[in-house]
Specification:
Keywords: Membrane, Transmembrane, Transmembrane helix. The structure is a single chain. The chain is an all-alpha fold. The chain has a single domain, classed as MFS general substrate transporter like domains (Growth Hormone, Chain: A), CATH 1.20.1250. Helices cover about 80% and strands about 0% of the residues. The longest helix is centred in the first third of the chain and has 32 residues, at about 25-60. The protein is globular, with a radius of gyration of 22 Å. It starts with 6 loop residues before the first helix and ends with a helix.
Length: about 450
């Protein structure tokens, strides 16, 4: 007969089971949780940045109108820096430093997806559509800030590149699925019902931050038992002056400044190409919104898949800086190639190849840029500092989206693409100026003061 377990053995089993549900104690759970949360971020992006612009293009809205919509929904992502200090300063510490904010952001996403169904006659009410899209982007950005802050707090530095690969790959897949499913639902059910129904997918993902703790002994919900962890107490800043004083110390460092400028310029490329593709393929090449969504989804899922399993590994092996420059050079060559070969635009395989390669390098570039940005962060203000990099990138993205309509009014597509190619070229210049080792030594010195 098998002997009964001793009290010590029972305690060990309970401790092991409990620790398996704590993010700081379980690397596999960390990877799965952050991947799921980034998948949730991809849903609003797929709808607002791609499905709706493609639908507007199919319904003969002008490039200026479409670019204006994309620029407006990009605004909340540009001002994430205003949200991050709030999260660094206030939280329900007994539930973790960032998990309460993640849950709040997910709730907001659910409600904002339902609210867009209230917009009447969206094709002839672009202002109403912009307002509804703005709130979807706002809560998407809110959840993004909280998730990034939690990742920097919880994920060890030596696992951050791999985590970024899984997270960004999941976001790309979420974006792709939202686009292809959202487009199909729009064509079958109509715009309002289709977009509102996507709140169901977001609602399922809210279970992820609800079920797991950041650190041992913390509460699952405000009314359950638990207490703040020592690590959270030590990292939590208790005054606005502390936050802004520490943020200023790290923001004025040269490498932080160079990364900030590189993020703005690189974001401009994202905005220009993301807005260019649905307008160009549908209105210039005669594609349907369904064919665009299918091509975009296939190519970005491929990019996301390779990014999840290879993006972080390549950064770990070759280094952030080297891989960022390689990806930027590849993007530069691709964009110039499309610009100087207009006689191949009628070849669907050529356009498919461009989109596939661009989004493959786009995914790898995002993973490398995010991993590099995390390395430049000081943990005491990590959420705010990392969000600053992301906000600057999104500011560039919003500017790029808005510029697309203006560029198209004064020049042909070939010259629009050549102007876009300046972005990766200039980004390379500033990336080469970054010194990661010097930044880390300075941050270590600041932490001892």
């Amino acid at each position: 007969m098998k002997p009964e377990p001793t009290n010590t053995e029972v305690l060990d089993i309970e401790t092991f089971t409990k620790n398996n549900l704590i993010l700081s104690e379980n690397p596999v759970l960390r990877y799965l949780t952050f991947s799921a949360l980034y998948l949730a971020q991809g849903i609003p992006e797929g709808i607002t940045y791609f499905a709706i612009p493609a639908w507007l293009a199919m319904n003969n809205k002008t490039p200026v109108e479409i670019a204006s919509f994309v620029a407006v929904i990009g605004i909340p992502w540009s001002f994430k820096i205003l949200i991050a200090p709030l999260m660094d300063r206030f939280t329900i510490l007994s539930m973790g430093r960032k998990r309460p904010w993640v849950i709040f952001g997910q709730l907001g996403l659910i409600l904002s997806f339902l609210a867009i169904g209230l917009v009447q006659d969206p094709l002839n009410n672009l202002n109403g559509l912009m307002i509804a899209g703005f709130f979807i982007s706002f809560f998407g950005a809110f959840q993004d800030v909280a998730t990034d802050g939690m990742a920097i707090d919880i994920v060890p530095i030596n696992q951050q590149a791999r985590a970024n690969g899984l997270m960004w790959g999941s976001k790309i897949i979420g974006t792709s699925l939202a686009l292809v499913i959202g487009t199909a639902l729009i064509n079958i059910l109509g715009f309002n019902t289709a977009i509102s129904s996507l709140s169901i997918a977001v609602a399922f993902i809210i279970l992820v931050p609800i079920c797991f703790r950041e650190r041992p002994d913390e509460k699952i919900m405000p009314w359950t038992k638990g207490k703040p962890s020592k690590e959270s107490k030590a990292a939590q800043l208790e005054s606005w002056s502390q936050i802004f004083k520490n943020l200023f110390k790290v923001v004025v460092l040269p490498s932080t400044i160079f990364m900030g400028i590189a993020s703005i310029i690189n974001g401009t490329m994202y905005g220009l190409i993301d807005t260019f593709l649905p307008i160009f393929t549908i209105q210039e090449l005669g594609w349907t919104n369904t064919s665009f969504s299918q091509v975009y989804s296939i190519t970005t899922v491929v990019g996301g898949f390779f990014g999840m399993f290879a993006g972080g590994a390549l950064v770990d092996f070759f280094g952030d800086k080297k891989m960022i420059i390689i990806y930027l050079i590849a993007s530069l060559v691709l964009i110039i190639g499309l610009a100087v070969l207009p006689y191949l635009w009628g070849n669907d395989k050529f356009i498919f190849g461009f989109i596939l390669l661009y989004y493959l390098f786009y995914t790898f570039l995002c993973i490398a840029m995010f991993a590099a940005s995390m390395k430049l962060c000081w943990q005491t203000v990590a959420a705010t500092q990392f969000t600053l990099f992301m906000a600057l990138s999104n500011m560039g993205r919003a500017a790029g989206s808005g510029l697309l309509g203006t560029f198209k009014e004064i020049m042909s597509w070939e010259y629009v693409l050549l102007c876009t190619a300046l972005s990766p070229l200039l980004t390379i210049v500033f990336i080469k100026l970054i010194n990661f080792k010097k930044q880390r030594k300075t941050i270590d010195a600041l932490s001892k003061i």
